[in-house]
């Protein structure tokens, strides 16, 4: 039996192939949006992006928060039965666990990237460790702010988000850093929701001046007031994902053309890497 340490519980356990972003979002894309394969900013995936990260005990522990979010927030917003997200401890734990998983994956992906200094990665490690302790109940202190944005097509239209970017916020999944004027945030995009954690800010992040941190008592609705800074962020995220999806389709076309000319090309490293985890038939 292959044993290694669970990222959440720090136990030597058999690890499962864990969804970085909960499967509920991929299920929505597959059943409701008919969006297969999944072309996201983090690649092409058949059943949702998965890595060996958590043991079964950790998966079971997180599932209750995922179910709460799915039943009480995600489905009511998507099905237009509700326009408001009320803050509570279950929502906060779900959001922290989601951003934590995505940030771990990001760190593991870029750990050999020269653009990130060892000091930067050590700083991220400290943040991730505190988030982990919060998730499992060992700490009740979060130094970073967390925000949730429910997003509808009507809201995107009203606020003049270019139509070509709509699918980014309604049908795509991805995560990365967003840096603007010294403010540093980590974001996760899922269908109909944007999650943001502000890691560093001198002024409690002017970008979200009208929106309460999830740690506070309150709510957010689907009629968020657009600010110039928020519009700038949304357009940046839309453009970034749109570029990535374009590259995926371009690469797929180029590789298919080479396969048509030379069937042995399937044995090449380029073809093998691109096909890994995709729905290429």
What are the salient characteristics of this protein?
single chain, 281 residues, alpha+beta, 4-stranded antiparallel sheet, two-stranded antiparallel sheet, 8 helices, 44% helix, 20% strand, disordered C terminus
How are the secondary structure elements laid out?
Elements: E1 4-5, E2 12-13, E3 15-19, H1 23-31, E4 38-40, E5 43-45, E6 50-55, H2 56-78, E7 84-86, H3 89-110, H4 118-135, E8 145-150, H5 153-158, H6 166-171, E9 174-180, E10 183-190, E11 193-200, E12 219-221, H7 228-261, H8 269-275
Antiparallel strand pairs: 1-2, 3-6, 4-5, 7-12, 8-11, 9-10, 10-11
Helix pairs in contact: 2-3, 3-4
Structural write-up:
The protein contains eight helices and twelve strands. The chain has 281 residues and is of the alpha+beta class. The strands form five sheets. Strands 8-11-10-9 form a four-stranded antiparallel beta sheet. It has a two-stranded antiparallel sheet with strand order 1-2.
Q: Tell me the helix content.
A: 40-55%
Number of helices: 8
Q: Radius of gyration from the CA trace?
A: 19 Å
Please report the total strand number as a whole number. 12
Arithmetic mean pLDDT: 78
Reported for the largest beta sheet, the result is:
4 strands, antiparallel
State the shape: globular
Sequence of strands across the biggest β-sheet = 8-11-10-9
* Proportion of residues in extended strands: 15-25%
N-to-C span: 32 Å
Uncertain residue segments: 35-44, 245-250, 265-281
- Assign the structural class, choosing from mainly alpha, mainly beta, alpha/beta, alpha+beta, or little secondary structure: alpha+beta
Q: What's the helix-strand series? A: EEEHEEEHEHHEHHEEEEHH
């Amino acid at each position: 039996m292959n044993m290694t340490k669970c990222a959440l519980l720090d136990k030597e356990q058999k690890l499962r192939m864990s969804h970085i972003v909960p499967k509920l979002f991929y299920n929505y894309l597959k059943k409701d949006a008919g969006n297969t394969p999944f072309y996201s900013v983090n690649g092409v995936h058949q059943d949702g992006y998965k890595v060996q990260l958590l043991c079964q005990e950790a998966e079971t522990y997180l599932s209750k928060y995922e179910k709460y979010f799915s039943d009480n927030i995600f489905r009511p917003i998507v099905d237009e039965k509700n326009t408001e997200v009320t803050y509570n401890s279950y929502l906060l734990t779900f959001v922290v666990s989601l951003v934590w998983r995505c940030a771990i994956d990001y760190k593991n992906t870029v750990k050999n990237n020269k653009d990130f200094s060892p000091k930067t990665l050590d700083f991220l490690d400290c943040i991730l460790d505190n988030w982990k302790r919060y998730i499992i109940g060992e700490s009740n202190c979060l130094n970073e702010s967390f925000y949730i944005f429910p997003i509808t097509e009507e809201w995107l239209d009203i606020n003049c988000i270019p139509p070509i970017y709509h699918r980014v916020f309604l049908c795509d999944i991805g995560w990365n850093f967003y840096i603007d004027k010294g403010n540093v945030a980590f974001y996760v995009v899922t269908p109909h929701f944007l999650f943001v954690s502000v890691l560093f800010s001198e002024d409690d992040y002017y970008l979200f001046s009208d929106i309460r941190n999830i740690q506070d008592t309150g709510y957010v609705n689907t009629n968020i007031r657009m600010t110039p800074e928020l519009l700038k962020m949304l357009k940046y995220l839309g453009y970034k994902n749109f570029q990535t999806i374009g590259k995926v389709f371009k690469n797929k076309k180029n590789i298919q053309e080479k396969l048509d000319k030379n069937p042995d090309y399937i044995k090449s490293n380029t073809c093998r890497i691109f096909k890994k985890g995709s729905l290429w038939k």
